From TrEMBL:
Pfam families xref list: OMP_b-brl
Protein's recorded name: Outer membrane protein beta-barrel domain-containing protein
Upper classification of the organism: Bacteria, Pseudomonadati, Bacteroidota, Flavobacteriia, Flavobacteriales
Keyword match Signal: yes
Highest rank taxon of the organism: Bacteria
Keywords: Signal
Domain Outer membrane protein beta-barrel: 29-216
Stored InterPro entries: Beta-barrel_OMP (IPR027385), OMP/PagP_B-barrel (IPR011250)
């Protein structure tokens, strides 16, 4: 039910942004449709994992969950306005609480999601006669924080967890009004735990997001 409410809220907000941005129907597209600052709202399914260090082992839990993100960035079109380079920061809200249960070890861990944020770069190529379509690749360093509640052999305690990962992938953006853009992206992530032993290997599941951007 919580996931359904999140999806409903997302689409309501996207509709509001659409109505605001398209109120002035006189706005015309131009060659620098993707140039400058922008802000947006995206939603989708992302690969979320969290960990807790128990007796030298990082006990992980993982699932694909709904995430709502606010991206803010700046881009510059170069070489006849066809090539694009940009940077972006984002803050996310997620249905990200996870749980691990190991009856043999008498271990129960609740990973309580607290926040998600990140930053990255975008490289793209603008296509179309009106230069209103963008194909791009992205790479984002994303951080997630969790407050963990642990019950081990009838002893309860807490930990804080911070996960960092590289998210990368492909995207498509369509400037269909002067200031309003639609975005679709899909990608994966890379994570490195170093020499720390983990109970599972994090599966490289697909992330996908859709959303609207307002280009200033």
């Amino acid at each position: 039910m919580e996931l359904k409410n999140n999806i409903t809220l997302t689409f309501l907000v996207l509709i509001i942004i659409f109505l605001i941005a398209t109120h002035d129907v006189r706005g015309q597209l131009h060659s620098e449709n993707f140039d400058g600052f922008y802000i947006g709202l995206t939603s989708g399914i992302q690969n979320i994992f969290a960990g807790s260090l128990i007796q030298g082992e990082d006990i992980l839990a993982q699932d694909s969950r709904f995430v709502l993100e606010i991206p803010i960035g700046f881009r510059k079109q170069i070489v006849n306005d066809r090539l694009l380079i940009g940077g972006e920061v984002h803050y996310g809200f997620a249905d990200g609480n996870l749980k691990h249960i190991d009856m043999e070890r008498e271990l129960v861990i609740d990973y309580n999601f607290k926040s998600q944020y990140g930053f990255g770069i975008t490289l793209g190529y603008v296509i179309g006669n009106k230069k209103n379509y963008l194909l791009y690749v992205y790479g984002n360093e994303t951080k997630r924080k969790f407050d963990n509640s642990i019950l081990s052999s009838n002893v309860s305690f807490s930990q804080k967890d911070k996960q960092g990962m590289l998210r990368y992938g492909l995207g498509f953006e369509w400037a269909f009004f002067k200031k309003l853009h639609a975005r679709l992206s899909a990608g994966k992530l890379r994570v490195d735990f170093g020499d720390i032993q983990t109970n599972i290997d994090v599966e490289d599941q697909l992330d996908y997001n859709i959303g609207l951007l307002y280009q200033f």
